[in-house]
Design a protein that fits this description.
This protein is α/β, with parallel strands linked by helices. The protein folds into 2 domains: 9-256, TIM Barrel (Alpha-Beta Barrel); 284-493, no CATH class. Helix content is 51%, strand content 9%. It contains 14 helices and 11 strands. It has helices at 22-33, 52-62, 80-94, 108-113, 121-139, 178-187, 202-216, 236-246, 258-280, 337-369, 374-383, 399-422, 427-456, 461-493, and strands spanning 9-12, 37-40, 67-70, 73-74, 100-103, 147-150, 155-159, 171-173, 190-191, 225-230, 248-253. The strands form 2 sheets. The chain has a 9-stranded parallel sheet, with helices on one face. Helix 9 packs antiparallel against helix 12 and helix 10 packs antiparallel against helix 12. 43% of the residues are buried. Residues 283-300 and 384-405 have low confidence and may be disordered.
């Protein structure tokens, strides 16, 4: 299926439990971490959950930039005219950060117990169709009078219009069956299914149905954004495949773990964006030369070997002094699928850093050969990670520096303490890895200074090559050491419970 060309969005979908403040805290973390979207499921009949619209309003006041929506609104318990005003009001108060994902209804016993209607599947689709017309009409500042819809399920008799949202709120549908997919293509702005509920081929079939309905209604298939609720952790390669082969441009991670949100924002999202940009022709190819290959996901937990080749004349540390993990004869030889996936995810992230390193080396070679100047090289490196975040590594630190530093920051703050708390014997290894992070960050700063020196002519041109070699040696050695020591502990202790 086609890539519809939409900007990629990454978000979190925490459980809106009212047993503690975790839903709010995770939303705030997603906002700080640079994610694009936070959503909450909407089950008004569930007493263990916060009311979703109240929660969205509270979270909107506690965040600054992230988009917000229910996932998805339980339409039978939320009258569409009132819902339209609620969404528009919150969009105004939040500065245009609200979207509206709708569902036709489910769990009919619980809905009926709350005073809502019990609908057949066909009636539920018809009611959703009527609701979309009412919502759009409420938002439309048509001066010709009030909103009038005489439907089988909803009747609006001259309701006043407004307020108008400050941005065009997207209406997304949680759709699976043929009539819901047809309604999505004909009348909605987005499709939001859940990956765990889909069978192989369902995304392609759903896209085909939506596209056909859009064309029949005189719309372009690209008018409809494709979003997806993810289940457990998922690899970079799989997300890239979903974006390019199935047109998915919004990925929502179901999680209650702060660690997952930080890693999704700091590592997974930038890696997927860059891989998709390369395939779309907006990345490395614009400077000439092929994109680095994407390492296939392996079912085995296999650390990347260190080939021992060193480009520079000295390493920034003594590799022989590295401590090693105490290995017990009782170490497991098999792991759960979750443990394997988490260990593999570390390799995936490292592979992305390795491919970025190759791009940096290619840029430096072009600078030395006169194909581009150092200023252009710094600009391209700065664009390698499209999503900017709320920290810097010095005034001129390029985005590759940011990508590496974010990866290390997540490890230093969360992964390393978690592993240390579960395996005291890992302490010396974790201490050494944290020390190497600091050294690598200093080498990255040296690289940027060398590019500045080359640009101004105030530096020895050979210094740029030397610093690049030092970065290559240090980073490749470090990543191999980290995988060798941490893959088994990560798979054993399973970071997500």
């Amino acid at each position: 299926m086609p890539d519809y060309g939409h900007e990629l969005w990454f978000g979190a979908n925490p459980v809106p439990s009212n047993q503690d403040d975790s839903a709010v805290e995770l939303a705030e973390l997603a906002d700080r971490s640079g994610l694009d979207l936070v959503t909450f499921q909407d089950h008004p009949y569930q007493p263990r959950f916060f009311d979703t619209w109240t929660l969205l309003s509270y979270v909107a006041a506690r965040t600054d930039r992230v988009r917000l929506t229910a996932n998805v609104v339980n339409l039978p318990l939320r009258p569409p005219a009132v819902l339209a005003r609620s969404a528009a009001s919150l969009d105004i108060l939040s500065g245009g950060r609200v979207e509206l994902a709708l569902g036709a209804g489910w769990f009919w016993d619980a809905i009926e117990a709350m005073g809502g209607p019990r609908r057949t599947p066909g009636d539920a689709v018809d009611a959703l169709d009527e609701a979309i017309r009412i919502i759009r009409a409420i938002w439309d500042p048509d001066p010709r009078g009030g909103v009038r819809v005489e439907g089988e399920h909803y009747r609006v008799a001259g309701a006043k219009r407004g307020p108008r949202p400050p941005h065009d709120i997207g209406i997304w549908l949680g759709a699976y069956k043929p009539r819901m997919l047809e309604l999505t293509g004909r009348a909605a702005d987005g499709w939001l299914p859940s990956l765990p509920a889909l069978r192989p081929g369902d995304l392609a079939a759903g896209n085909a149905a939506i596209d056909a309905a859009a064309v029949e209604a005189g719309r372009s298939p690209a008018d409809i954004r494709r979003l997806l609720n993810l289940g457990d952790q998922i690899s970079v390669d799989r997300l890239v495949e979903l974006a390019l082969a199935d047109g998915v441009s919004g990925f929502l991670l179901m999680t209650q773990e702060p660690y997952d949100i930080e890693r999704f924002a700091a590592e997974i999202a930038p890696a997927v964006r860059q891989a998709v940009d390369r395939e779309r022709g907006t990345g490395r190819e614009s400077l000439g030369g092929p994109s680095p290959p994407v390492r296939p996901v392996s079912l085995r937990i296999e650390p990347t070997p260190d080939d021992g080749v060193r480009r520079g004349d000295r390493m920034p540390w003594d590799e022989s002094a590295r401590p090693t993990r105490v290995r017990s004869t009782d170490d497991p030889v098999t792991f759960t699928s979750r443990g394997r996936a988490q260990a593999q995810q570390l390799v995936d992230v490292h592979d992305h850093l390795r491919s970025e390193l190759e791009q940096v080396r290619g840029l430096v070679e072009q600078v030395r050969g006169g194909a581009i100047d150092a200023g252009r090289a710094r600009s391209v490196v700065n664009d390698m990670t499209m999503r900017q975040n709320d920290w810097t590594l010095g005034a001129y630190c390029a985005s590759y520096c940011r990508l590496v530093t974010q990866h290390h920051t997540v490890e230093d703050r969360m992964l390393f303490p978690y592993l240390r708390s579960r395996d005291a014997d890992l302490g010396p290894v974790l201490d050494r890895l944290a020390e190497e992070h600091k050294v690598i960050h200093q080498v990255l700063e040296d690289l940027d200074r060398a590019l500045v020196g080359n640009l101004t002519g105030s530096d020895d041109p050979d210094r740029l090559d030397a610093v690049t070699d030092r970065l290559s040696d240090a980073l490749l050695s470090h990543l191999a050491y980290e995988e060798r020591e941490l893959l088994d502990p990560i798979a054993t202790h399973e970071l997500v419970r």
